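input
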Amino acid sequence: MNNTAKWEQVKEIFSSALDIEPHQRNDFVAEKCNGDNDLRAEVESWLASHDESEDFIERPAITAKEIIGDDSIRGRHFGTYAIVREIGHGGMGAVYLAKRTDGEFEQEVALKIVRQSIAEQNMIERFRRERQILASLNHPNIAKLLDGGVSENGEPFLAMEFVEGLTISEYVSNRTLSINEILTLFIKVCSAAAYAHRNLVVHRDIKPGNILVTSAGEPKLLDFGLAKLIDESLGHDLTTTRTEFRALTPAYASPEQLNGESITTSSDVYSLGVLLCELLTGQRPFKLEGMSLNEMINAVSTLEPELPSRTAAPNSKLRGDLDNIILKALRNEPDRRYKSVEQFAEDIQRYLSGLPVLARSDTLYYRVSKFVMRHRIGVAAAALILITLMTGIALTVREKRKADRRFNDVRQLANALVFEVDNEIQKGPTKGRAMIAKRALEYLDSLALESGNEFDLQLELAAGYLKVGDIQGKPYRPNLGDTVGAVASYQKAQVLLESLTIANPSNLEARRYLSLCYQSLGRVQQRNSEWDAALESERKAVYLSEGLVATDPANAQYSSLLADNYVQCGAALYQLGRGATVADHHQAIEYFRKALAIHSSLSAAEPDNTEYRYATGVDYEYVGIAFNRLGDMTGDLENHLAALENHRKEFAINEGLAAFDPSNAAFRRIVADAYGEVGLSQLKLGRTAEALENFRHRLAIFESVKASDATNIEAIRDVVNSLLEIGPTLAKLDNNPEALAQMRKALALQQTLTEAEPDNIETRNQLRTLSEAVTELQKKNPIE
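output
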């Protein structure tokens, strides 16, 4: 009988057995198979897998005695391993916990043994193939093959890595993971499956029971017993293997598997789609309970699954991209699914990173909306605020005699944002920010000429100039590196706001904007090494915000602004470039501690407010920096220990924020900052190797940001600063060749910064310092 006929016979008996009472199935199957042991084994395997996937019956279809006979199970030896207890079973065999007994070393393994009743040549060959497959797979998320052989009674066995953990569905349920945490875990499973595919192996039985998650949160893909090695020497296509007389788990099987058709890596994509749906919703895409095999095949082959976001436990967070990602993996036709598991995982990562996903049509509106979400601190914030600004300005001017012309300006700016900015978005986020700044300045300057004495309009204009200044050159956030332009924009806002506060001193909103304007101006002045001007600007910002809080102490917005101003005033005060003294550093620490007290109080009142938590981490960072500088000035190690303590508190806060929202670029950046500050403190305490490890973590994050947008000047500066930490640290460890390589990278990037900002004194000075450092290292490097 050929394979196709055999397959049809298996399906017929299996389908009929599902309609039989569980306790009568064994007799029924034995009668129908009429002594054909291969056929009976296959049907029983189907039933066992079906029962496992559907929780259909409590009694397993295969018992331990059926697998290795009536002999005592516990204590039996297979090679150098003694069985302890059964831990699982399936269609081909059973799995036991076993211990190594040869005395060379202690080891617990998962021992897999083929069923005695099917230990005929074809099954033994398949079992040997599994051993061969597993031996070729070496991946952190795949259970490792440790040993293998044949027992005295002729039973083939495999000794595999013993994974102690929960099935992935149990792990997700018990830990109550967030959607992002589930997706991050799932990507690791995809990595394992993709690795197997690259080694020409299709798993063919991906389901929760075959994925265990350790207490450390690492998933392990188990049981390649159903996988078939795709090998040209066997006469098969490199991407396709014909379904054989075999077992599978119907609830997770692809339509082509259930139909006995050709299987590709796309079959695993489908099974992973079922798994992801179940992990996110608690339900599989099709309700197959109680169906015959033919009904199952018809359901998965012809019906479209319901949107995951509309399941029995609706979840609006799944609506949109995640719905589309899951449904693309579950297409009936293999060629309409993701082309590979890598592509599936990449789409999930794109979702986590806020990028457009492949599972959705790439319309202009969709690209722009995803861009805005992804860069809500950069272009997104600018675009949204500018659009809001346009609306406010239009409403203010609408009743004036020049309303028609103003609305035409608004339309032109809106068209620029949607069409011209979209073109620049394709070249990189910074290109988009540049276009927004350019168009917004044109519009604001035009409107400013006609603003006259219109108070509301001038306030809107000032807010617009502040936002454009942020895009141009606000430090420590994605910007264009145009500090000269940023100062000019801030000063335009300053002129408007000073005029407004003089004309109407009681208007708190104008005073709030003016305080923010002084703070922003001071930060850029620090970047330009204008130390005295920066300190004056920050003191004005503090004075104004202290007045706001005195007027309305319960206003959280005013309190938060005051805390931010304390931080920036302290930062301007302790700059070594302005000749800061020990007393200046102590005063700066007092400012930082005042800010910390305010932000901590605000965060305690609103624990879910990430902005307050973010700000608290920044406060700890500045306190730590000040203590490190004090330690440098006084030689007192206690100051460096105090710095390390504060930076570790900073790291804990920042790491928590990044875990809460992995796609937030600002949160990733502050984690990188914390790595750097912890490393610097360790370096000052003589813990050089620990410091180097933290500096490398920091560099990896910043290089990732730079790679996503090579034109982001702030990202380039971050990478340079990281390399400037790593280079000297390597030199301290006497690794001069690598130190020189890192410093040369920094020098090349610093040249880029200098070309972008030729008038920036700090940038030019750093280029000169770097060039001198590279020259000194070349002298120490014997290879040069």
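quick obs: Residues 53-71, 228-247, 413-428 have pLDDT under 50 and may be disordered.
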